User: Which sequence fits this backbone?
């Protein structure tokens, strides 16, 4: 614990914030020091972002006080936040697409003249000082994710921020980009800035931070020095009890080829090839992981199998247990279903593509069975029973099966969706980023459900982003790079570095 | 040859006089939409501006007595009353859509119906009060349509007619378009306003007051649109309440905003083109083609422009990204 006389750059005392009846933050105390990196660690929904949003002036605390350099302050708006030199880099970038980097950087500043030349020059100067690489006159829509993040960081530095808060900055970056970001953060730490990094990735906490503050379910658990702690201790603090880091991976006897994809090529609406000559075999009784940097064609791969994405070339052959092959290319989702292919698809965009947000669980179950029933009337009984079954079996937290799914938390929404897809007894089960935004416990529930499907003999295709999970959960891993298959490896023997390399290179070449 | 020339010149001159109300309506709506508010009530706002602007001049002349009216004061009264009428109507729209976060399309359509009703009521009331028709002295009527340029400029063949022969309001609208362009593109305040329309969450996080920007842009924009209705009444309608003539200008202004891709400078020539398309049926009659077909031309070109600009997929030529959406900071 810090000595009593330490004056924090920012100190939070007993901060409480409620949203209706939900307590997002409950009596949190925290201190940020200059020249230090504080990692704010916690599972999803533990209140990390909410807490930092109160420093950024997005929310106002219900109780408690905030001190800047020992003086009590009130932060009512983002403007107040700038006044105390606090800069927050949000998880979802707050940038205007049609503006240049420099125009985004000066948004909201009151420095008199509107002289873009001077602004551009100052931006270049900041970039040089900390080792960033962006062109101030480039439009945001022409930029990569990591460049956009750089613009966000330069934006707060331009305002002279001394206290930087980064909300899950590495979620969208490749390992190499993450390393570069950490270098920049170290430069800023050496420059005397106080830095907070919100994360739930332990390896990053260990790599960059000086101190770690842990939140669990809105409560403050404690602060420890990174040098004096272990990943195991932090995990215990984060989840409250020891969770097995090992994902159960039983072996299915005698896996058979279930789906053969050959030479699959997809061209999107803008004429860009999203998939180039993709070939692989998905085996019944195996989980095939799909790894790759976001936007490497994962979405198109799953959607083309599901019959949602036009296919330019190639074939997708489905082999059921009795052995009669079916060609899926050129079929609509309905025709695929009528051909007797039991395909389950858990899309990335749960509420957009997977579920109807304003309907309850029962209504969403009916999306799979609306054709059953007599004449124009739908059968409500069976979906309702199914909804009740999922509600109890998967421990979905909801007041009733008619409660709109939109108002459930992300984890519960995913349980509803996965539960529905599993109920159709699929022989091919596909999911994209099934655990994105879910806490550890729910993630494990989803892993177990997928393993269950595999042991039933279904072919499971799992698009994931966390390499550790892919390596522990899957049997094989297919790595996509720029729409091409850069390799298919055995998950039991492959290493993280091996996959990381495949993600950025195809056959030894650098990806564009 | 000479006949064709005369035909073209008269067509352009007439098109410009029809373009002026449109240009005001469009510039106001551009300002509004740049803040992310889609105000479909322009039709109603222009009706209110027309009736109340005319009312202002009518009662001003009545108070000071015919013949004693000062032309400059009359212009100021007309503009001010129209502006206030439009601002008031837009204030209602702003309160409902920004503060209460109601659906903008529904509110805008309601405002259109409400505004045409108010305009009709005020216009008819004045007509009956004045005993048959609203009478404004010929001096003022002429002042409203007179060109502000000296005679020698107006007398230059062709150029004089096309460039210097229009009502003061046309030049005012052009100056306004240039000012709006400079405001949006070259000033910090304009940059902030555009950021509100593109991404209010970004603007908010940057410390820009989203609510204030939306209110101001919508209210001032509504005021500018309303001037368009007044300009129609005092120039083209000859200072009488003519609701049939005014009908449709507001909707054309909404279409023109899309046609000119939210750029005030393009609105200048766009409004002249729309003006020409509006009156083409009176000038160029082709047998067997009903006038209704001519009248849909402005809408047809708008659709064509929309199709082309969507196909080219140019990120710069798109509506403000959050157009039509309400903003609520604590939405999760």
Assistant:
């Amino acid at each position: 614990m810090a000595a009593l006389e330490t004056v924090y750059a920012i100190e939070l005392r007993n901060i409480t914030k409620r949203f209706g009846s939900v307590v997002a933050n409950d009596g949190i105390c925290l201190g940020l020091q200059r020249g230090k990196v504080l990692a704010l660690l916690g599972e999803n929904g533990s209140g990390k972002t909410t807490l930092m949003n109160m420093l950024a002036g997005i929310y106002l605390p219900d109780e408690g006080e905030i001190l800047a350099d020992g003086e009590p302050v009130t932060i009512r708006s983002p403007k107040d936040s700038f006044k105390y030199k606090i800069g927050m880099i949000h998880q979802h970038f707050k940038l205007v697409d049609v503006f240049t980097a420099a125009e985004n950087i000066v948004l909201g500043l009151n420095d008199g003249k509107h002289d873009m030349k001077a602004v551009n020059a100052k931006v270049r100067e900041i970039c040089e000082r900390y080792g960033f690489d962006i062109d101030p006159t480039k439009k945001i829509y022409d930029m990569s994710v990591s460049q956009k993040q750089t613009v966000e960081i330069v934006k707060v530095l331009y305002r002279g921020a001394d206290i930087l808060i980064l909300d899950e900055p590495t979620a969208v970056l490749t390992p190499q980009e993450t390393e570069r970001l950490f270098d920049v953060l170290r430069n800023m730490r050496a420059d005397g800035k106080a830095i907070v990094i919100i994360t739930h990735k332990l390896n990053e906490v260990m790599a960059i931070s000086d101190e770690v503050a842990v939140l669990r379910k809105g409560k403050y658990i404690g602060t420890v020095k990174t040098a004096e702690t272990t990943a195991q201790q932090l995990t215990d603090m984060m989840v409250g009890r020891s969770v097995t880091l090992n994902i159960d991976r039983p072996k299915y006897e005698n896996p058979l080829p279930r789906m053969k994809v050959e030479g699959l090529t997809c061209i999107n609406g803008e004429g860009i090839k999203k998939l180039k000559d993709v070939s692989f075999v998905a085996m019944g009784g195996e989980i095939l992981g799909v790894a790759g940097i976001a936007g490497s064609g994962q979405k198109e791969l799953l959607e083309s199998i599901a019959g949602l994405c036009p296919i330019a070339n190639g074939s997708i052959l489905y082999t059921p247990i009795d052995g009669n092959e079916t060609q899926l290319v050129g079929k609509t989702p309905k025709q695929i279903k009528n051909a007797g292919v039991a395909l389950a698809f858990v899309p990335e965009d749960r509420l957009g593509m997977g579920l109807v947000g304003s309907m309850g669980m029962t209504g969403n179950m009916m999306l799979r069975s609306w054709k059953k029933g007599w004449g124009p009337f739908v059968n409500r009984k069976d979906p309702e029973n199914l909804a009740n079954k999922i509600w109890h079996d998967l421990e979905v937290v909801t007041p009733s099966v008619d409660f709109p799914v939109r108002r459930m938390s992300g984890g519960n929404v995913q349980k509803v969706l996965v539960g529905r897809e599993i109920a159709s007894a699929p022989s091919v089960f596909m999911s994209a980023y099934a655990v994105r935004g879910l806490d550890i416990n729910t993630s494990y529930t989803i892993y177990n459900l997928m393993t269950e499907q595999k042991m039933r003999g279904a072919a499971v295709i799992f698009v994931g982003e966390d390499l550790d999970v892919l390596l522990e959960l899957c049997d094989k891993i297919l790595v996509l790079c720029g729409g091409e298959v850069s390799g298919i490896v055995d998950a039991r023997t492959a290493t993280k570095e091996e996959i990381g390399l495949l993600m950025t290179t195809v056959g030894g070449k650098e990806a564009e | 040859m000479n006949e064709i020339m005369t035909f073209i010149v008269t067509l352009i001159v007439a098109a410009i006089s029809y373009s002026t109300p449109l240009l005001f309506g469009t510039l106001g709506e551009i300002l509004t939409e740049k803040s992310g508010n889609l105000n479909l009530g322009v039709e109603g706002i222009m009706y209110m501006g027309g009736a109340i602007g005319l009312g202002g001049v009518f009662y001003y002349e009545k108070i000071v007595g015919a013949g004693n009216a000062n032309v400059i004061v009359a212009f100021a009264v007309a503009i001010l009353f129209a502006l206030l009428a439009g601002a008031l109507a837009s204030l209602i729209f702003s309160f409902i859509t920004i503060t209460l976060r109601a659906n903008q399309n529904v509110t805008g359509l309601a405002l259109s119906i409400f505004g045409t009703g108010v305009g009709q009521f005020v216009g008819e009331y004045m007509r009956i009060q004045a005993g048959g028709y609203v009478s404004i002295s010929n001096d003022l009527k002429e002042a409203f349509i007179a060109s502000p340029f000296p005679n020698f400029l107006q007398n230059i063949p062709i150029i004089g007619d096309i460039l210097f022969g229009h009502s003061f309001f046309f030049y005012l609208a052009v100056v306004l378009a240039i000012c709006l362009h400079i405001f949006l593109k070259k000033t910090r305040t304009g940059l902030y306003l555009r950021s509100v329309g593109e991404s209010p969450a970004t603007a908010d996080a940057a410390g820009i007051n989203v609510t204030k920007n939306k209110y101001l842009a919508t209210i001032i924009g509504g005021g500018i649109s309303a001037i368009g209705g007044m300009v129609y009444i005092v120039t083209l309608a000859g200072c009488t309440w003519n609701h049939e003539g005014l009908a449709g200008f507001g909707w054309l202004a909404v279409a023109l905003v899309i046609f000119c891709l939210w750029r005030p400078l393009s609105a200048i020539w766009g409004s002249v083109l729309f003006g020409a398309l509006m009156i083409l049926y009176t000038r160029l009659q082709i047998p067997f083609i009903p006038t209704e077909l001519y009248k849909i031309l402005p809408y047809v070109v708008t659709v064509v422009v929309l199709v082309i600009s969507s196909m080219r997929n140019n990120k710069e030529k798109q509506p403000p990204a959050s157009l039509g959406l309400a903003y609520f900071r604590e939405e999760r």
The mean pLDDT of chain B is 90. The domain at 2-317 of chain B is CATH 1.10.3470 (ABC transporter involved in vitamin B12 uptake, BtuC). Residues 2-34 of chain B form the longest helix (33 residues).
